[in-house]
Amino acid sequence: MQLKEHVLNFQKLLQHAKRCNGLTPEMERHLETLRPRLVPLVREVIEESYALLDSHDLLKGIHASQADLQRETTQLIEEIFTKPFDEENARAIYQLGQRQMDQNLPIELIGGLLSLVGRKLIDKLFQQHGGQEKLREEVEAVLAALAFNLQILQRAFLDRELKRFCQVTGMSPKLIEQLSRV
Fold first, then answer.
1. Per the confidence metrics, is the pTM higher than 0.90?
2. Which residue in 12, 36, 66, 80 is deepest, having the highest Cβ count within 10 Å?
């Protein structure tokens, strides 16, 4: 039996992720001004984060090399601070989440990694900064951007699991959605 592909409204996901994470136009502007300071820090922060994950054996059982994962994560984090929060970017993040699912990456690892990266970037901002109010605004913008990306990645993981469930049970995504409302 061939299953109909689940169609996702990326514009709706984009707006929902922005609202849920408080990613306001003002925060997006803060991120644009932070870009020159944040992007050069990303590689160092990713290397530190992966070294910590590896030291706890959290990368075992993943169907991709650590170098490939680290490269893909570096690209994702750099794009958080260099690309607009638009439908095209939401689609790219979602597709990355689908690829990560194919590589057997647990969503907890992705959430933990984004949290680690966020804390390390924030620590580096504190080291660079003098004015406290401006720093607070910058920290809030960084956290909102990371949470936005995590939410879209989680949706990609959930949709992949739904697809697997549908293949096993023969149920359609629409039927499962209807049953979940009962």
1. no
2. 80
